[in-house]
Amino acid sequence: SEEGKKWAEYLDGLSPDDFGKYKI
C-alpha cells in the first residue's frame, strides 16, 4: 500500500541511533 511504502521509506531514512530512540 502507499502508506506502507511511506513508512518503509521513513524508517529506511532513519539512522540506527534514531531508530533506537523511537523503538518501543
Gap from first CA to last CA? 23 Å
Structural class, from secondary structure content? Answer: mainly alpha
What is the total tally of β strands? 0
Helix-strand topology string: HH
Shape: elongated
**Major sheet: size, sense and barrel closure?**
none
Low-confidence stretches: none
Compute the average pLDDT.
77
Helical amount among residues, as a percent range? over 70%
* Number of helices in the DSSP assignment: 2
Radius of gyration equals 9 Å
Q: Report the β-strand fraction as a percent range.
A: under 5%
Question: Could you walk me through the main structural features you see in this protein, from its secondary elements to its overall organization?
Answer:
With 24 residues, the protein is mainly α. It is built from two helices and no strands.
